[in-house]
């Protein structure tokens, strides 16, 4: 019996050694790549990032302390931001929003120079994109709304402008915005499209440019000049024309229509990143988009 016991222990030892060798080989095969192939890079499973306030349930998450947000916004958003601000105060009463409006390009420059903005809402995509490229935003810019262009004249229309082609007529006084203001880029695009239409006067674009008598700081200032009769016509956003009782609009041919895309971004140096993200997310939501729509804006791509 003793000899049998010793033999059994020896056999057991051999079996254990063999098992360990097999396990080692299996482990090695599990980590090695097949011959001639490249092992795929390790991909970490992303941990569940905490949702920004307002993104999970559609409503902002209350803060333990009052929050002051400063929103830098395009001048053409001035009117619609008032009801948006009032509604958001009902949803997030701990958040106080201060709105500063102006030309998007000027606001971007102020942010680049360290102005204390939390959210930037621009009348184009170019200015927010520049801040993203410079590393001055928290994340990517988001499309906000679309707008259309129109031609406005004083209600009395003293220059007798009836069609878009009249903008190039000699003696017409055009009021425009500064070269860096988004409405100018859109207006130039519109003028190029009008010039390309069949039957458009020869040299339309050059004649239009020659008729520009002043360049204003932003689109609201352009509208004000036309309202006061200090110019015969201007190309502005349809929403700004609709907000004025002192101007008349001149139709733009559908084939020349230009869509203005607005975008927003959270400023990276904001002391309230979560609340800033929540507000921007809310602006992209159904309720806020309906308020935008009541002022003539459209949801992106609609």
Mean pLDDT score: 85
| Unreliable residue stretches | 1-57
Give the CATH H-level superfamily of the largest domain.
Answer: Periplasmic binding protein-like II
Question: How many H/I helices?
Answer: 10
Number of domains: 2
Total strand count, please? 9
Strand content: 15-25%
Helix content class: 25-40%
> What is the CATH first-level class name of the largest domain?
Alpha Beta
Tell me the distance between the termini. Answer: 91 Å
Rg measurement, Å:
31 Å
CATH architecture of the largest domain: 3-Layer(aba) Sandwich
CATH topology of the largest domain: D-Maltodextrin-Binding Protein, domain 2
Query: Would you tell me the structural class of the helices and strands?
Result: alpha/beta
Gross morphology = elongated
Secondary-structure element pattern, one letter each: HEHEHEHEEHHEHEHEEHH
User: Biggest sheet, in brief?
Assistant: 7 strands, mixed
SSE blueprint and pairings:
Elements: H1 2-31, E1 67-74, H2 78-91, E2 95-102, H3 104-112, E3 119-122, H4 126-133, E4 142-154, E5 174-177, H5 182-195, H6 204-211, E6 212-216, H7 219-227, E7 234-237, H8 238-242, E8 247-250, E9 259-266, H9 273-283, H10 286-294
Parallel strand pairs: 1-2, 1-3, 5-6
Antiparallel strand pairs: 3-9, 4-7, 4-8, 4-9
Helix pairs in contact: 3-4
Structure description:
With 302 residues, this protein is of the alpha/beta class. Strands 1, 2, 3, 4, 7, 8 and 9 form a 7-stranded mixed beta sheet that branches. The chain is built from 10 helices and 9 strands. Residues 1-57 have low confidence and may be disordered. The protein has helices spanning 2-31, 78-91, 104-112, 126-133, 182-195, 204-211, 219-227, 238-242, 273-283, 286-294, and strands spanning 67-74, 95-102, 119-122, 142-154, 174-177, 212-216, 234-237, 247-250, 259-266. It folds into 2 domains: 67-146 and 261-294, Periplasmic binding protein-like II (D-Maltodextrin-Binding Protein, domain 2); 147-259, D-Maltodextrin-Binding Protein, domain 2.
């Amino acid at each position: 019996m003793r000899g049998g016991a010793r033999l059994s222990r020896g056999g057991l030892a051999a079996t254990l050694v063999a098992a360990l060798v097999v396990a080692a080989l299996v482990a090695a095969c599990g980590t090695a790549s097949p011959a001639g192939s490249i092992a795929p890079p390790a991909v970490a499973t992303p941990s569940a990032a905490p949702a920004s306030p307002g993104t999970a349930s559609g409503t902002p998450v209350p803060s333990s302390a009052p929050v002051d947000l400063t929103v830098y916004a395009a001048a053409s958003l001035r009117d619609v931001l008032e009801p948006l601000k009032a509604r958001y105060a009902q949803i997030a009463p701990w958040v106080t929003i201060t709105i500063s409006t102006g030309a998007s390009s000027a606001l971007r420059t102020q942010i680049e120079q360290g102005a204390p903005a939390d959210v930037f809402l621009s009348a184009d995509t170019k200015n927010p994109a520049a801040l993203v490229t410079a590393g001055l935003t928290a994340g990517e810019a988001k499309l906000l709304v679309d707008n259309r262009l129109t031609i406005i004249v004083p209600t009395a229309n003293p220059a007798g402008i009836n069609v878009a082609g009249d903008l190039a007529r000699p003696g017409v006084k055009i009021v425009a915005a500064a070269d860096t203001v988004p409405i100018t880029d859109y207006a130039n695009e519109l003028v190029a499209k009008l010039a390309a239409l069949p039957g458009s006067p020869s040299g339309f674009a050059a004649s239009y440019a020659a008729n520009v008598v002043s360049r204003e700081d932003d689109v609201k200032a352009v509208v004000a000049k036309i309202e006061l009769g200090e110019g015969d016509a201007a190309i502005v956003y349809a929403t700004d024309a609709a907000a004025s009782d002192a101007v008349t609009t001149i139709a733009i041919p559908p084939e020349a229509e230009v869509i203005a895309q607005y975008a927003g971004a959270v400023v990276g140096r904001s002391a309230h990143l979560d609340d800033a993200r929540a507000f921007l997310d809310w602006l992209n939501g159904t309720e806020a988009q309906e308020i935008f729509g009541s002022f003539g804006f459209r949801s992106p791509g609609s």
